[in-house]
Amino acid sequence: MIGLFPAILLGTLIVVLGFYLVVQGLRRSQKPAVSIDEYSKAREALDAVFVQRAAIERVFSIDDFKFIAGTGNDDARRLFLKERKRLALLWLRKTQKQVAKLMDLHLRLANYTYDPNPGFELELNAKYAAFVVISKMVLLLLWVAGPFMATRTIAYTIRATGDFCTVFSLRLERVNATRLSSDLEYLIH
Amino acid sequence: MDTKIIWWSGVALDVAILSRGCWTGLLRKFPLFYTYIGCVVVKEIIGLLSYEWAPRFYELLYWPTELATVLASYAVIIEIFRQVLKHNPGAARLTHNVLVMVFAFMLAYASSDPLHGGSVSLPRAIVELARDLRYAEGALLLVMLSFFVRYRISANSNLLGLIFGYAFWVGINIMTLALWFLPGNGLSLRLRTVLPLSYNMALLIWCVTLWAVRPNPVQPPENDVERDYELLATKTREIFARVSSGLVRTMRP
């Protein structure tokens, strides 16, 4: 029916996933599935992405670099490039981490929905995969070429992140809000 | 002698799992799984008796009974799915749709296999059907495990042990069957030993993890789960909307 290699691959994947599920399950059984605390952390992560938007544009802005280059001091230019590269790498790693947190939150929340949408889930997972691949490529580009050379790709990453967030907000609009109890409103503030 | 030791230890483990299941009450919790174990015990005892007293009958019996246990093992997939459904309705519902599609595809593919002209005799056809059903089972299990891992399902140690033991057994079984069907490996003594040994390992995993009833993962009461989720979702929707509009504004000045 299937060849030797696919069969070996199938068997190996089943054993590995089974083992991974046990490790994941034992780790998760030590803490509650969904809590307000977890929500607060995700909220902070989201806020950080939003707040950093203006600052990050400055990191990648070519104007500062032009100004430093205009002074003719090579040491200052090198230090400036090094610092900006470090900041850009830090930002990207943090963004990756925050988006991963969002995805984790979504997946855990999806477990409790009564009517999840498979089409939307597929779309969300595809977009997340695209984000992961692109952001890793940009990270490599930043590492090799520095922030100013990589500006175009960065702009594309930002666009991908934007799409991801839009999909996420649409997904949350599908939540059954009628189940929300008004007596617990205080928890959101 | 070695073969008999492996065989008898397998039966002993089967009986131990069944008796512990009765004693702890897990038999009522996982009825389909214990039914499967019961089927295996019956098959093993029939196999042992016929091997001792009527070896020719054993040869005839081996693959049909193997086919029957492969079919019975589908009950374990249903059991796992049923148990996961209890605490993770969202992930289970998503998995259900994909499982139905994969099963339909694999069944159609497996049933079309004999038409390609592979089998010339009934025993050979049974052997190939058993193998194909095991592959289909493997595909189902892979899809199910992927969803469970992706959606971070929560389960107690009993269920996790059941899933891991089953995944281990099916995974090793698929690899062994694939090697078995390679030309020249049909009579390999090593492969004949790997299969029961790996099954005994799976039985050992089940025996250890189903020895006593383990508590379910720490979860807030049902109402709290729903309310927390809705609160979380409502507030997060607001934040996401704010962040995404901010991002779009930054991207398209």
Which key phrases capture this entry?
heterodimer, A: 189 residues, mainly alpha, 2 domains, disordered C terminus, B: 253 residues, globular
Total separate domains of chain B: 2
Q: On the 0-100 scale, what is the average pLDDT of chain A?
A: 70
Spell the H/E element sequence of chain B: HHHHHHHHH
Q: Which runs of chain A of at least 5 residues are low in confidence (pLDDT < 50)?
A: 170-189
Concise summary:
With 189 residues, chain A is mostly helical. Chain A has helices spanning 4-28, 36-59, 62-70, 74-110, 118-145, 151-173.
Fold and architecture overview:
- The complex is a heterodimer of chains A (189) and B (253).
- Residues 170-189 of chain A have low confidence and may be disordered.
- Chain A has two domains: 1-30; 34-188.
- Chain A is an all-alpha fold.
- Chain A is 77% helix and 0% strand.
- Chain A has six helices and no strands.
- Chain B is mostly helical and 253 residues long.
- Chain B has two domains: 2-219; 220-253.
- Residues 225-229 of chain B have low confidence and may be disordered.
- At the A-B interface, helix 1, helix 2, helix 4, helix 5 and helix 6 of A face helix 5, helix 6, helix 7 and helix 9 of B.
